[in-house]
Design a protein that fits this description.
The chain has 4 helices and 2 strands. It is mainly alpha-helical and 117 residues long. Strand 1 and strand 2 form a beta hairpin.
Length: 117
């Protein structure tokens, strides 16, 4: 037992080779500070707003300006944030208006999934 420990000591005393880094290069240390999930979500929304404002300022066509809204879906009290260009918002509004008009007059088939889309 003593002989085995005596023979193993020089091997254990050697520094292990780091084969992933070439000799003489320092490793950069990256520190990632922890953030609370709520703070991160607010920061992401704030940065999205900055990007959308800049896009809207550079965009020459108002149809492509992006608007963000917070709305609670039907059957929920939790508002969701959705962002869409103006032409999509307008198309959805026109479609909803058309369905209401057709539904009141009896001309439309409100049970068709294709018509809903």
């Amino acid at each position: 037992m003593v002989v085995l420990l005596g023979l193993g000591a020089p091997a254990l005393a050697q520094e292990p080779e780091n084969r992933s880094l070439p000799q003489g290069e320092d490793v950069e240390e990256v520190i990632v500070p922890g953030r609370r999930l709520e703070n991160l979500r607010v920061e992401i929304e704030r940065l999205e707003e900055v990007v959308y404002e800049r896009f809207n300022a550079l965009n020459s066509d108002d149809e492509f300006d992006i608007q963000c809204l917070k709305q609670a879906p039907t059957g929920s009290n939790i508002p969701l944030r959705t962002c869409a260009p103006n032409f999509v918002i307008r198309a959805e509004a026109d479609s909803a208006q058309g369905m209401l008009t057709d539904g009141r007059s009896g001309d439309g088939n409100n049970h068709s999934r294709a018509e809903h889309r």
